[in-house]
């Protein structure tokens, strides 16, 4: 975990040293970044809204659209070497990343400790992505108001009843992850089926939808086409109660846990 945490926050993983994984996945936003999309090192605008990493180790699908990415290690490599769009800009420059990391004696010690059975050079892209994925698997969010029931207001409780009942929200947003990890078109404007996003910490991860085009939870709920989703129309009061319930899914411990934060000292 220690090695992966350092790598997660290390901008040497990008072409010009300006981006790390944490540039887009910021702890205070539940490991999203608060923008519709995020530009890469070449200033190419992102295509999709940055998804949260909360509980990512329990997922089986890792992208907004079905790209058959079913391991966290494979996903960890995508922003580093991907080209559509260019994010961290290291396509075909994996050896440069290995060289940069291996030049740091602290990193070499951590790789030797993390991969004691590996033969030869241990600072490889395969091991780098394994280490990052290992850290990301520790990003567990399960201490929200809904989990603990501490401060669980009557409005939140009523919203829960609607969420699991009349609203049929849990059909796709299934606990404990609040996603079924399947792909759907939820409105007529959608050109592709998109993965059901987790609702854990949803109050912290605006803007919403795959393209970050919606600013509020109210807009996000109302943007579900009832003919495609079979979600009934809710009254204004019911909508506010559901939003209160969604607010109860915020895990303040998760966004302040120092184990997940930028290391206080550099690896050196």
How would you briefly describe this protein structure?
GO terms for molecular function: cytochrome-c peroxidase activity; electron transfer activity; heme binding; metal ion binding. This is Cytochrome c domain-containing protein. By secondary structure, the protein is an all-alpha fold.
Name the descriptors.
268 residues, mainly alpha, Cytochrome Bc1 Complex, Chain D, domain 2, 2 domains, two-stranded antiparallel ribbon, 11 helices, Cytochrome c domain-containing protein, heme, heme binding, oxidoreductase
Beta content comes to: under 5%
**Content-based structural category:** mainly alpha
The 3D shape can be described as globular
CATH domain class of the largest domain? Mainly Alpha
**CATH architectural category of the largest domain:** Orthogonal Bundle
Care to count the β-strands? 2
Organism: Commensalibacter intestini A911
Binding site for heme c 1: 21, 24-25
Domain Cytochrome c: 154-250
InterPro entries: Cyt_c-like_dom, Cyt_c-like_dom_sf, Cytochrome_c_Peroxidase/MauG, Di-haem_cyt_c_peroxidsae, MauG/Cytc_peroxidase
